[in-house]
Amino acid sequence: MIVSGLHQLYAFKGYRIRKAAFSTDGTLIFLVPDKRFTLRCPHCQGTWLRRHRTTRQTALDLPASSSRLVALEYDAIQIFCIRCKEYRTIHPPGIDPHAQATRRLMVFASRLARRLPLDHVAEFVPVSHATLYRWDLAILELTLPEPDFGKADYLLVDEKCIRKKGAGPKFVTLVLNAETGELLSMTEGRKKESLQAFTDLLTESEAQGIKAVCIDRSGAYYQVIREDLPQADVVFDKFHIVQNFNKVIDEVRREESSKADKAGLKFIKGQRYNLFRRAENRTERQSATLEQLLAANKPLSQVHLLGEQLQIFWTYKYGAWAERYLADWCQWAEESGLKPVMRFAKGIWESRAGLVAYFYHRVTNGLMESFNATVQRVMQRCCGIRNLQYLWLKLRQESLPCHQQK
Hints:
Nucleotidyltransferase, domain 5; 3 domains; 18 helices
């Protein structure tokens, strides 16, 4: 049977198509060695070899037309290389003998796995879930570029919970390039050693090029940055500061709930998230109920007002003026007499250098918070992650544009 152009679709150097068989179940292409080509050792490319034996093998290839299954049957030639002094096996170029598939099929499956769960990829590539996992892992290791630390002037560092129950690591430390969103590092744990594993990879010039690192107020991360990146400014993320103060508001709310009578408890109950919301995010009904609560409860009114005043801190243009405002805010917090607020004010005043550094670099962990949603999505798509190396590759793939993958 002669099919025009078929040899161009299945062009493997050193092999030619002997015949092709088509059926409703799939397509079978028979390849045989092309005698016009000289056999070469696949390791050293030498021609000094002895032909030992030939075996028939099969490999899967990309789907063609309506055929989900395309199989290539070919002669694998075993030779003895005089130069290498070892036995080698010659396969058609582009076929992975261990995967029993062409590399282009493996790449196709890996590209699908970027958007679909592996169970769904199996609808397009007729192999098992375990096989697709091995293919995806192998292709990601081959095609993803190494992290470029030299272009990272600003870093984002945060922890992420990847497992709540069961054996295995529960947290990982992520490092992102704040300007491009590229994932530069993922290490197990959330302690000092987790971030230090990343800084140990940096050359002296790469470390010197980092201008600032944005983190939450984690003492472990802060210590590593001060020791390993002394020239970089530490910026405390404003979203974490606001989140921390929301916990203070909630603590005051719980204290007031414990003191309230039955009628007052019913009035306070259900107002937790209403206290956290900014004015522009509240509905008219939410604003009305909040005004009633604040009018009836002085401590909640105080802590809510302090929360709104804290937001003003990040609206300043210059760091010196922002620091003066922060000093005033801490004084107001002391005058409130609320112990949770006073503890919080003492902590941020001691950390004021990291807060004021924001006005010199204007970097936040917003991109990291968005990436945390990506982490969750990848883990759901993969139905959980047992292999940290695979999670690292999948997350790095997500952080890069498609064209950067080889």
